[in-house]
Amino acid sequence: xxxxxDQLNTNKDDISIHKDQFDNLASSLSRQNIQVDQIVNKxxxxxxxxxxxxxxxxxxRFGRFSYHGEPSSLEQKLEDIGVIHSLTKSAGAVxxxxxxxxxxxxxxxxxxxNSLDIKFDAVNSNTFQDQxxxxxxxxxxxxxxxxxxxxxxxxxxxxxxxxxxxxxGSKSITVWLAxxxxxxxxxxxxxxxxxxxxxxKDIYKSLPNDWKLFIEYKPYEPYFYSTVIQDWGTSFMLAxxxxxxxxxxxxxxxxxPNTNIEQIVSTLMxxxxxxxxxxxxxxxxxxxxxxxxxxxYALFLIFNELVYGMENNxxxxxxxxMIDASHNxxxxxxxxxxxxxxxxxxxxxxLLVDQTKLKQAQENHDVSLCQEILQNAYLTxxxxxxxxxxxxxxxxxxxxxxxxxxxxREQLIKERGKNTVATGx
Length: 425
Ligand code: PSV
Ligand code: MN
Ligand code: MN
Known about the structure:
alpha/beta; TIM Barrel; six-stranded parallel β-sheet; binds manganese (II) ion; metal ion binding; metal-binding; Xyl_isomerase-like_sf
């Protein structure tokens, strides 16, 4: 299903109330010397990739409850992203997982993506599952495996993913490794890390000049005792040893409870080594639930550092943004719309932080004022700014409401049937 702009006249009912709310907020912000137009433009330009694996129902290890009308081909996945993008105007990219989403006809896929205004962001390799007919097994690791043959197979796969990405116009590859151990003594930490470093260096050699390599870290899961790339420091070290095109990728769900993620972001940007960012939220583990549904203030503090870094750290490249989510209960498209909305809202709040005033207060050691400046920005209802950014681009004022009014899921079920299953996590 491909939405055409005429179908978006759901804005009519809400436009006059939006105009009042936007004018009120804009005049109050202008009185505080905030450049409202600049903020609205930044929001309009902020694009977040949707992963090809997040468009169907995920599941837990206890079960998977299918969501009807799921996309069963890469074309249908792109169409789903096209729907979200035409409503939100902030999902103009897709991140593919290989081999789940290998295009059959590259030109046709590129044309479809182009017609939907979707770019190809980072491609993701998969060395955490054994593919049918694979010679070697990843049961005991991939890039870190003690067996040279397994490592070679995993390296070759990553190189193949780069080739596929090149044909599509991607400019980066994300490596997330499941490698680790479940029991003390099972693995020699130093050997596993050295193998991983050498394997990554080998992959890096095949990286085109204008590409980036993103290295994710995660302290646990699927192994229970250790993971080879357990934290940002390990990823940072590996990226440094690979070279200047290698970067750390921060996924919000990949930290132990109470980790100060905003400080990690800040350190990496200072060193010019933050390359990618995966949004999600969690209460207990790598839950991959709706962005901002559990810890919205923590997300704001992280965004505050991202905004500071984007304004003050020219040594850090432009980031690749992606929602790394999974859906067990909600309609995946509704959930992604909610996540996009929260990301835009939180970005807008961070853009309101008066950095000059904050710096002064920090220098005066005025702790209360520092906190007040952050709270003032956080507590401002910025939704009219986000809506204005969408309106400027002919998006929906209220994407979720429009999605429901247009009966999109019902139409998808009519088109695709009830029992389709999307590939993914
Ligand atoms: C597994 O934890 C994971 O969620 C990582 O965050 C990756 O980015 C994603 O799967 C896809 O490989
Ligand atoms: Mn991730
Ligand atoms: Mn994850």
